Queue: 2 jobs
Job 1
Amino acid sequence: MREFAARFIRSPEGVAGLVLTTCLLAMALSAPYLFPRDPLSIVGRPLLAPFADPAFPLGTDRLGRDVLAGLMHGARTSLLVGISAAVVAILAGAIVGTLAGFSSGWFDEALMRVVDAFQIVPGFLLALAFVSVMGASLPLIVLAIALGAWTGPARLARAEVLSIRERDYVAAAWVIGMHPLEIAFKEVLPNALPPVLALVSVIVAGAVLTEAALSFLGLGDPNIVTWGSMIAEGRNVLRTAPFLSIVPGLGLVAMVLGVYLLGEGLVEALARRRIRQ
Amino acid sequence: MSKPLLQVRDLSVVYGRRNAATHALSTVDLDVAVGGRLAVIGESGSGKTTLALALARLLPPEAVVEGSIAWPGLDRSPVGGRDIGYVFQDPGSSLNPVLTIGEQVSEGARRHLGLSRGAAKKRALELLERVRIPDPEAALRAYPHQFSGGQRQRIAIAAAIAANPLVLIADEPTSALDMVVQAGIVRLLDRLVRDEGMSLILITHDIALASGLADAIAVFRDGRLVETGPTPQLLSRPANAYTRMLINSHIDFTSPRLIEAG
Amino acid sequence: MHRALKLVRRRALSSIPVLLIVVTGTFFLLESATGDAVDAYLVSLGGGDAELARNLRETYGLDQSAWSRLWLYVSALARFDLGWSVAFNRPILDVILERLPNTLLLMGSATALAFLLGSLLGIVAGARPGSGVDRLLSVGSLALYAVPSFWLGLVLILLFAVQLRWFPTAGIESIASGKSGFDRAVDIARHLVLPVCALGFIYLALFLRMMRAGMAEIWRQDFVLAARAKGLARRRIVLRHIARNALLPLVTMLGLQAAAMLGGSVVIESVFAIPGFGRLAQEAVAARDAPLLMGIIVMSAILVILVNLLIDLAYAALDPRVGQGERRT
C-alpha cells in the first residue's frame, strides 16, 4: 500500500487530480457548516458584483442569493449525484455483464441486445424522458443518469467473465457442486470487477456533466441548488453579470478535470505495479 | 578478401540507465568481407539481434552505444534501405497490415532510386517475380493478411532488397515459419545473395542453417563474441568449449543439410 | 462492393430486434407517466369536461390496453408512421423531419471539425512523443475534455458574439433576411460557428487523445521498425505507416459517440436557440407530448443505427482485413 502511494505520488497528473478533488470534497463537506442557511434563500441586494461586499465574496445573483453559498452547496450535489450514479451504473453493469457472460446462449444474446438498445438511444435523451415521466427528485436523477451509463461496465464485465469462467478455480467450483449463481457472484464477479473499476472516473465525470446539463435545462430538482441551475439562472443576465454563469462553470471544469486526472493517476500507478510483477 | 565491407571495433551496447543496466553487447570486434556471408549464432539473449540492430542503426533511443562500426567497403556512411536491407523474424508483424504489397515492396525503391510511380510498380512486379510470388500482378494490389507466412516472408525479402542494398541483414528469417517453408526461404536467400552479389549477415540460433548458408560464423554468448572463423574450420575444429557444445547439440549427422554448401 | 452490401444487410437485419427493444422499453416508460397527452392538452386549454376527454382518447386510441396500443404503434412504425403530435397538431414524422436537417447540419459539422482537427493534432502530438508540443497538446486536450459543452457555448457567446460581435448570438439563420443561395449558406455558416465549436470541442479533445495514444502504441510495432530499416523519410513513416493505422480505432469511436453527440445537441440547441431535433425533445417534455417524445427517441435510435452502418462501410474501406477471407493459403 505504501509502495502504491509512492508510485502514485510520482505521477504529476494523479497528484493534481487528488488536490483538485480533495478541495472540492472539502467544499462539499463543509458547505452545511460554513453556510448553514438554505443557499436558495435571499440574503442580500441582487446582482452584487464579486469582491464588492466582504459578506458576499462572489457576489449575489438576480434574486439576491449568495453565489459562494450556492457554489459550495452545488459541489455537494454534483459530487453526490456523480458518485451515486457511477455506483449504480457499475453495479448494474457488473451484474448484467456477469449474468450474460456466465450464462451464454440465448440469455446472453438477449441481455446483450438490451445493452445494444441502451447504447443506440442517446443517454441524455433517455435521462430527459425518464426525469420528465418519473419526476425530478435526486434519487430519480441518479437513476436517470445511470440508465445511460451502465452499458460500458456491462460489456467490459461480460468480456472479463468470458475469460475468467474458463479458469481452474471456476471449474473446481463446478466440480464441488456449487450453485451456478453462487459461482457467478462469488467466484467470477469479484475477479471481473477490477478492470471495470477503471471506468469509475470516466463515469463519475460523465454523470457530473449529465446532471449539470439536466439542471441547466431546468429538469433538475428545483429545491436543490446545482451548478447547472446556477449557470442557467445566470444566463438570463449573461451580458450584464457574466460571472454568475462563469463561476459555477469553472467549478464544473475543476471537478471533471480533477476526477479524470485522479483516475488517470490511479490507473497508471496500478499499471506500473502490474509491469513490475 | 581485400578491404572488408564492415569493421566492428570494441562495440558495446547498454540499454537503459547505465548504472543499473546490463550490457547487451560488450567489446565486440568483427569483420565482414565484401560479398561475404557471416552467420551470427547464439541463444536468445546472446546479443545477436542487438548487433544486427546496431549495424542497421535501428537501436531504440535509450540504447547507449560505444565503440565503432566502420564501413571501409563503402565510401560514405551507409543509408538504411539503400545500403542495408533488413529482414525481420516475423513477417506477420513486419509488414504493415493496411498498406498494399505493391506499396510496401516499392517504397524503398522510390525513396532511394528516385523511381516514378510507374517505374516503382514495374520494379515491385519484377521483385515479386524474383521471390516467386504466384500471380505477382494481383499480389501488388493485395494486402499482407491474404498471404501465407512463407509468402509474407518472401514479400518482406523483396521489400528489403528493393533498392539493391550491398548487404542484407536477416534476423532469424525462418524461425517464425513452418518447417516445410523454411527450406524454401533459405534457398531463396542463397540464390538472391549470389545473384545480386550482396553480402549477407544471417542472425540465427540454428547452427545447421548457419553452416549451410554462411562462409564465416561468429558465435555469441551473453553479449560477448565467443569465437569467429571460416565455417569449415569453426565446425571441424572449434576452439571454444561453448561452440563445441552448440555443435554437438545441434548437428545431427543423419539429418541432411538444409542446403549443400558450395 | 458486394462485400460491403452484405455487411450492410447483416447489420441492418440485426438492428431490427434492438430497435424493437427500444420501442417497447420507451413505450412502457412513457406509459407509466401520470396523466397523458390529453390531460396536458386539456390543461393547456384551461380545462375541459369528461366527455371531451373521452372523445379525444378514443380519437388517439388512448382508451385501448397498453399491449394493443404497442402493437398498433409498431405496425404503424413499419409504415413509417410515428403517430400524431398533440402539441403541434401535426403528424409527428413531419415535425421531426422539419427539425432534423438543422441538427444533422450541426452534428455533421461538429463531427467533421472534431475528427479532422482532432486526428490532425493527434498526429502532430504523436509524431514526436514526449516533445514539448506533445505535452502541450496533451494537457490542453485534457482540459478541453473537462469543459461542459453548454457552458462552453455560453462562454463563446459572451466572447465572440457579445464582446467581439464576430458571430450572431443565436438561431440558425437571420430571420426574414430574404437571403438565398450562396448568401444564405454563408449566413447559416456564420450562425453555426459557435454551436459547432461548443458541441465539437469535447470530441476534438477525445479524438486528439485517442490518436496520440494510438500512435504511441503503433510506434512500437515491428512494421514501423521495418519502415525505418527501409530508410524512409520520417514524414512518410509517421503519416503513411503510423497515422494510417492509428486512425482505425477513431473511426470505431465515431460510431460509438454518435448517440452521445445527438444527446449533446439537445443542450447546445437550447443554448443557441436552434430549432432542431434536440430542442424539439425539450419542447415535447415541456408540452408533456409523450407520443412526440417517443417518436424522437425512436427516430434518434434509427439515426444512430444509420450512422453506425455508414461507419461500418467506412471502416471496411479503410481496413482491408475486415470481412475478407484468405485469398490464398
Note: The radius of gyration of chain C is 24 Å.
Job 2
Amino acid sequence: MFKKFDYYAPKTLAELFELTNENNEAQILAGGTDLLLKLREKTTPHKMLIDIKKLDNFRGIETKDGYLRMGALTTIREIQASKIIREKYTALYDAAKSFGCLEIRNRATIGGNIVHASPGAEFGTPLFVLAAEAEVIGPDGTRVIPIHEFWQDVYQVDLKDNEVLAAIRLPYYEKMVSRYHRLSRVKGMDLAIVGVSVLALDPANIEKREVKIAMGAVARIPFRNKEVETMLSGVKITNELLVSVKEKLSDSIAPRSSSLRAKPAYKKAMVGNLTEQALLELGLLEEGE
Amino acid sequence: MHKIVESLNYLGGKNMATIPQPSERLDARKKTSGKAKFVADLTFPGMLHAVILRSPHGHALINSIDISEAKKISGIEAIITGKDVADLVINIDIGDQQPIAVDKVRFMGEPVAAVLADDKWKAAEAVDLIKVEYEILPAVTDAREAMKEDSPILHEKQEDYKRHGETNFTAGTNVFSHYKLRKGKLEDIFEKADLVLENSFVYPHRSHTQIEPHGAIAFWTNESEMEMYSSTQSPFFVRTCLADMFAIDPANIIVKAGYLGGGFGGKSDVTIEPLLAAISRFVPGKYVKLTLGREEAFTGSVIARGAAVELKTAVSKEGKILGEKVKIYFNSGAYGSCSLHIVTAAGHNSSGPYEIDNMEVDAYGVYTNNPPVGAFRGYGHPEVHWAKERQINLIAKELGIDPLKVRKINLLKPGSINALGQEIELENGDLAGCVDKVAERLGEIELPAETDNLVYGKGMAAMMKSPVMATNSAASATLRFNESGSVDLAVSGVEMGQGTKTAMRQVAAGGLELPLERIKIKEDISTDNSPYGWQTIGSTTSWKGGMAVLDAVQKAIDQLKANAAAVFDVAVTEVEYADNKLYLSSDPDKILTTEEVCFGYMRGNGYLLGQPVQAYGTYVPPELTHPDPETGQGNCAAEWTFGAQGVVLSINKNTGEITVHNLITALDAGKVINPVLARNQLVGAMVQELGGALTEELVYAEDGKMRNNNFTDFKIPTPEDVAETKMEVYFFETPEPIGPFGARGIAEHGTVGIAAAVGNAISDALNIEIFNLPIYNEKVFMEMTKAGDLVV
Amino acid sequence: MQEINITVNSKEYTLTVPPYMSLLEMLREKLNLTGSKEGCGNGECGACTVLFDGEPVRSCLVLAVEADKSEVTTIEGLSNPDGTNPIQEAFIAEDAVQCGYCTPGFVMAVQALLNRTSEPTDEDIKEALGGHLCRCTGYEAIYRAIKKLVK
C-alpha cells in the first residue's frame, strides 16, 4: 500500500515546468520501480508525483552529432534490445541484462536508475567508463554535465528542483570495447554485491590503448581508479601486472562494513577478480604467461 | 513399539498397491486459472480495514501513546492501544504474550496500536499520526548471550505467567524451557575414547516467506460470538486459543480456513488471530480485515527457528560413537509458546539416526529480542542434523576413514534403542537401504574434470524425523453416502499446497473401492461443522487424516453391511463387501449394489430397512506420553521416518559461487499414496532447505532491529538457482503399521539433511570446514583463501 | 480521485481511482479480479504479474492512473472460452502447482514468453522466470511444464 500523494501527468514541457516551479518537493515519476518503493515507507512523505511518461521529449535511442542519445525514459528492456548498445556499448548491455528481472526491466528507466543514485546502481559503472554525459532540462534551457559531476553523492544528483534529467549522451569512438561484471547472492533477481566495468579504447593497438575501470557498490558513488587505468593503458597486460593491479584496486576502496550484501574484505577481493574476468573477455590479457 | 490399529485389520486382506491415482491435483485447475480464493481475496459489505502500528525497537518501555492527531482523520472507526485490551493474554502453552504490547515492547514488529477504518489508506494515515514515546532498553539477540548473567531480561516475572502444563523455566533469567535427555551414563567415556571431538554449530533464524502473507477477517456478532476467516494451518487450535483468551466457549467461535498460500509451519501457530480478534471486538457487527504486508509478515507473525548446537562426541577408532554430550540453545525470540515444543523435538532428535548408548542432552529455550520463533518445516530436525551430520564427517576426517563407514557403524537398526528409549523395529523403515542408495547414486555421478576455476564436491547426510505433538492430537473424517452412491468426504487438515485433499480422496477411494470421481471431498475447513483436527502440522495430516478416513470407511462399510443384512434378512456377519457391492458370504451370487443400500433400502410399500450411511472416523496416535522430566525419554514420537540425502555441487574458485548439480533424497515413505505429489513435496522441501544452506539468514542489529525483513536482502532460492539442478527422489516402502495403507509422513523430510549434505560437499570440494549457516558465496571464498580449517 | 479509461481482459472500463492506488489494487479491489496476488508489494516476488500493453509488468509497482488508456491482461483473461489454456494445462499436467499463490504470476510470465517467441531457448526461459519466487515447488515441475509447452 502506498502513502497518499497527488499525481499529475503533464502533456507539454511548459506544463511540466509550471508544476516543478510551483512544487519544489514534487518527485518526478518515470518507471516507478525505485520511487514507488519509497512511497510505501512512512519515513518519506511525498506530496506530489509528476509523471513525465506522457511527454515524448524523453524517449528513444538515437545517434546524433557523434554521440548516442538515450532519452531518460528509455527502459532497461529497450537498452537490452538495442543492437548498437550491445555491439558498441557492451558494458551497458551487460548491466541491462543483469538489472532486476524482465518485468522490472519493462518499466524501469535509465533516467530513474541514475537519478536515484544508489551506490550499487547497475548503470553507474558502465556510464562512468563510457564517459557519459547527463542532459538536463529546465525552464531556463538545457545543461550538459559529465556523469561523474552529475552523480554527486548517495541518492544525490545535480538537479535543481525545477529541472529534469532529459537524456544520457554517450560519446562515440570508432574502436571501443567494454564489459560489466557483477556478483550477487542468488542467481536470479538480486542487487549487485559489487560490480566492475572495464573499457578499452583502441584495444588492438597496445601503445595507444586506453583502459578505464569503474567499480560499483564499493563507495558512495561509482568509483574510477585512475592510477590503475594509467598502469593498464598503453602496455601489455601481463599476469604480473595484473597481480599488482588487483592489489591496487583492492587497496583503493573502503566499502562500508554495515552492508548486508557483502563484507569489505570480499568486495576488496572481488573487484580484482571481476576486473580480470572482464580483461580476459575483452582479449586484453596477454596469454601464456 | 506400535500397535496395529483395528482399521487396518479390515484392509489387511487387500492389495495395498492399488490406490487409485488421479490425473491431476484436485485444486490445480482453480489455482492455475486465478479462481482459487485466498483470505486476501475475500471481501464483505461494509468491511473495515485494520492497520497496525508496530514497535520500531527491539526492546523498549512504552512511556506514552498519543492518539489525538490520529483520531482527527475522518472515517476512523476505532483506535486501540495495549491499555484497551490489557486484560487479554495469549496462552498457548505459556501466558507470556498479549495481543498488543501494554507497557513494554520486546521485539521489532510487536503491535503497539491498531486503527480500524473504512478505507485502508485512512487507517494507514492515522497510524502514522500516532505518537509513541519509548524508553529504549538494552537488547539481546543471541541465545547464548541471553543466558549470561548480565544479559537484559525480557520477562522479569516468568513465575507469574499462567501455563498449560509444565514448562521447565528458570525465574529471573531468559530461560523459559529446559529439556533434558539422559540415556545410559557418560561417566568416564570421554577419558577412555580414542577420539573426543567438540564442535559448535549455528543454524540461524530464517523466515518462512510463504508467498501469501498472513491475513484474516473477523466478525463479532456480539461480544461473545465471533466468526473468523484466517490463513491458518490450525483453525481448531486458533479457536482453542481465542476461546481461552476471551474466556468464552469454543463453540461460540467459528474459524474458517480455505486454501493457504503456503504454510511451512509459519501459519500453524496462532499468529495474527488474537490481535485481530481483540481489536475487531470493538466494532461488533462489522467485518474487519487484517492482511500483512511483506515486511510485516517478516516481523509480525513468527520467524523460523534456529539454534546453536554444541556437540562433544566420544568415538572409538573404528568410528563407533560411544557417548555424546549435546547442548542446544534455541533463540526463541520474545515469546516462548510457539517454540516450546521445537526445543523438545530438537532434543529428541539430536542423536541423529544413530544408536548412541550414552547421551546427555540439554536443550534450552531462551527469550531474546527477536520476533517470536515458530514452527518451520523440519521443526528442530534440520538444526540438529546440521550439527550431527557435519560432526560425523568431521569424525571421519579425524580418524581418516570414510564418513559412510562412520554412518553405517552407528545407524539405528532393528533392535536398537533410540534416544527416547524406544526399540526400533523392522517396520520403522529401511534406514540402511536409504543411506546405501544415496551413497550409490553419489558414487555413480561422474564429475566433469576440474578446471582452474571450478572445483566439485559431493556430500551426504543420513536423517530421521518424528512428529512432536500433543498426546491427544486427533484427526477426523466424515464420510457420507449420497443417494446416487457417491460419497461426500470431509477430513481435518488444511490444504496449503501439500495436496492432502487429493491424497485423502485417494485413500477413501482405495478403502471403499470406489472410483475417484465418485468421491467429493470438502476442501475448506470451518470449525462449526468440519471434522475436528488439532493442527495441520508435523507431516501428520495425511498420515493421521488417512487413518481417520479409513476408520470412517470401515464404519461406513459396517453400516452398508447392516443395511444389506436387513434386506437379506441375515446376521450382519454373513454379509461381505467388495468392489462396491455387498453379497452373502454363503451365496456370493446374492448381490446388492452400494447404491441400492447406501440410503437405506426401501421396500415397495415405503418401509425403510436400515438407514442412510454416514460415518465419523477419528484417529489419535496411540499410547503417546510426555517425556519423563528426569530422563526426557518416553513414547513421545508416534512414528519415525528414515532416509538419507545427497548433494553434488561445484564452486567457482574466483568468486566462491556455488552451483548445485544434484539434490538427492532417499526416504522410506512406508507407502507412497500419490507418487507425483510425493516426489514434488520432496523436491520442494530440498530446494527450500537449499535456501537455508546457502543464503537465508535473518540479520539483526544490536538493538534487536531486523535488518533484512524483505525479499531484497533475505534471499530465497530463485528459479535460476536450480535451473541446472537434477532432482532425485527415491522412495522405499516398508509399510508403517499405523499409517494408511502403510504410509508415513513425508512433507518436511526433504529439508532435514540438505544443509549438512551441502556443508559436507563443500568440505569434500575444498577441504574447508564450515560450522555456521548459511554458506553464502562470500563465506566460501573467504574461507578457501585462508590457510587451515578455521571457523567461519 | 482521477478518472481513467482502461481495457482489462478485452473489456473497457471507466473507473474513478485515487492516484495512490496500484494497478494491482485496482484489479483486485475495483474489478474483483483477485487472480493476481500481492506477495510483497515491492516488485520482488512476481505474484502480481500482468500483461500491460502486451508486456509483463509487476502490477504492484504500476499506478492505476499510469494505466490510463492502456490494455491489461490478467490471469482471468487468459482462458479460452472453454475455460482452458495450454499453459494452465501444462502446469496441471506436470503438477507445477502447490499452494498456488505464485502460480498466476508464473503463468503470466510464461504467456509473455510465448508471446515473444514460440521456440524459447533455455536462456529465454530462465530470463522469463528470473524474478518469480515460488516457495513450494522447488521450480522443477514449473520448468518441466514450460519444456512441455515448447517441445
Note: Residues 565 and 572 of chain B are 5 Å apart (CA to CA).
